[in-house]
Design goal:
The protein is α/β, with parallel strands linked by helices and about 400 residues long. It has helices at about 25-30, 40-55, 70-80, 95-105, 130-135, 160-170, 220-225, 240-245, 255-275, 275-295, 325-335, 360-375, 385-395, and strands at about 15, 65, 85-90, 110-115, 145-150, 150, 155-160, 175-180, 200-205, 215-220, 300, 310-315, 335-340, 350-355. The strands form four sheets. The protein has a seven-stranded mixed sheet with strand order 2-10-9-8-5-3-4, with helices on both faces. A three-stranded antiparallel sheet has the order 11-12-14. α10 runs parallel beside α12. It is globular, with a radius of gyration of 22 Å. The N and C termini lie far apart (about 65 Å). The protein binds pyridoxal-5'-phosphate. Pyridoxal-5'-phosphate binds near residues 149 and 153.
Length: about 400
């Protein structure tokens, strides 16, 4: 038997921005025996998770759950709504936006990639005015969809989706709005209905705190209408049959039963805390994390404070320091995984995840690991980020009443 001796003492710090650490409650729920996916108990589970997940997307419309990674749900969003050769306007926020565009090309669509030059686009959110300007020029309405990433996990930038909706409306353009919030959902504020999104794509292993393996499409009436004439080939991803069967809590094929147990538990955890409280917790941890980074004297990848991500913080390493060597030092010395720099940012940054099952002390331990690792790697720090972050977190805490009775 293969010896898996990679479990040193204590828990591993999985501080990549997804998969995020899976809470024990969810792991236990997932260990229930697998049941008959056509039996009565399954239907009740199906109905419960399908109703609960709508609250997370803030939608009254169907949410499709696929037994697939987020990438599969990207494909579902495109193939259900578009036809071969359709023009789509995509926005370059970073690596994930780039991968979605590659997929659009592979599927036979004609994506146009809008964005700011060089890495500038990878440091700022979606510029809605550029989208409006481009759509105004498309008087013949050749562009069938606008695709944007809400929380760009490769950089730590959370774009303003309501502004993109306003841009499309201001241009009087009928294009569908497709949004990837794979890493934003349940950590950053998201409103599928209110923001007029036609398809929202998400996944299980980020803010929902589940292992990888299920993903989602929240769909609008307009998207369903478009799906009736969309001609890109699809079978497994087709919405019609799954939405029809979901009405009774079942799937057309074997769904991921144990991950649905986990989803049921995750929904209970998030909705008990309250979605708005969950967002506030993430916002506060992100603030403390950013304070640590600036106190170290390092630069945050996101250059526009209005779109700082509550999910993760991208840390740019100084000239002459390979970010991946620093990550390796931290992994080997402190058993902590940090996110690597992706695409254009390879070697130039690392990413600290503070999403999902995260609290003050997990963040403090994470920052301590970073600070020790940066010092070991020889990076000259301007000050102690750990100390600065502690002050941010403690400033908002209740002090004890020390009056003697
Ligand atoms: C993680 C992620 C993906 C890819 O999801 P997989 O589950 O790895 O297929 C796509 N987009 C964003 C923004 C992500 O964070």
């Amino acid at each position: 038997m293969l010896k898996l001796d990679f479990h040193p003492a204590g828990r591993h710090f999985l501080q990549i921005p997804g998969p995020s650490p899976v809470p024990d409650r969810i792991l236990r729920a997932m260990s229930y025996p697998t049941i008959d996916h056509r039996g009565p108990e399954f239907g009740a589970l199906g109905l419960q998770v399908l109703a609960g997940i709508k609250k997370i997307f803030k939608t009254e419309q169907p949410v499709v759950i696929y037994p697939a990674s987020g990438t599969g749900a990207w494909e579902a969003a495109l193939t259900n709504t578009l036809s071969p050769g359709d023009a789509v306007l995509m926005y370059e926020t970073g690596h994930f936006a780039t991968l979605w565009k590659k997929m659009a090309e592979a599927l036979g669509l004609k994506p146009e990639f809008l964005g700011l030059p060089g890495i500038e686009g990878w440091r700022r959110g979606v510029q809605a005015d550029l989208i409006e300007e481009r759509l105004r020029k498309d008087s013949g309405h050749q562009i069938k969809a606008v695709c944007v990433v809400h929380n760009e996990t490769s950089t730590g930038v959370t774009s303003d989706i309501a502004a993109v909706r306003r841009a499309i409306d201001a241009a009087g353009h009928p294009a569908l709005l497709l949004v990837d919030t794979i890493s934003g959902l349940a950590s950053a504020d998201y409103r599928h209905d209110e923001w007029g999104v036609d398809v929202t794509v998400s996944g299980s292993q980020k803010g929902l705190m589940l292992p990888p393996g299920i993903s989602f499409n929240a769909v609008s009436k307009k998207a369903i209408e478009a799906s009736k004439s969309a001609r890109l080939p699809k079978a497994f991803w087709g919405w019609a049959e799954i939405i029809e069967m979901n009405a009774t809590g079942y799937w057309p094929y074997t769904p991921n039963t144990n991950l649905l147990y986990g989803l049921n538990e995750a929904l209970d955890m998030i909705l008990s805390e309250g979605l708005e409280n969950t967002f506030a917790r993430h916002e506060r941890l992100a603030q403390a994390c950013r304070k640590a980074v600036t106190t170290w004297g390092l630069e945050i990848q996101c250059a526009d404070p209005a779109v700082y991500s509550p999910v993760l913080t991208g840390v740019m390493t100084p000239e002459g320091f390979d970010a991946d060597a620093i990550r390796k030092t931290i992994y080997e010395n402190f058993d902590m995984s940090l996110g690597t720099g992706l695409g254009k940012m390879k070697g130039k940054m690392f990413r600290i995840g503070h999403l999902g099952e995260a609290n003050d002390l997990t963040l403090m331990a994470t920052l301590a690991g970073c600070e020790m690792g940066l010092k070991l790697a020889g990076v000259k720090l301007a000050g102690s980020g750990v100390q600065a972050a502690m002050e941010v977190l403690a400033a908002q805490k209740k002090k004890p009443d020390l009056k003697v009775a």
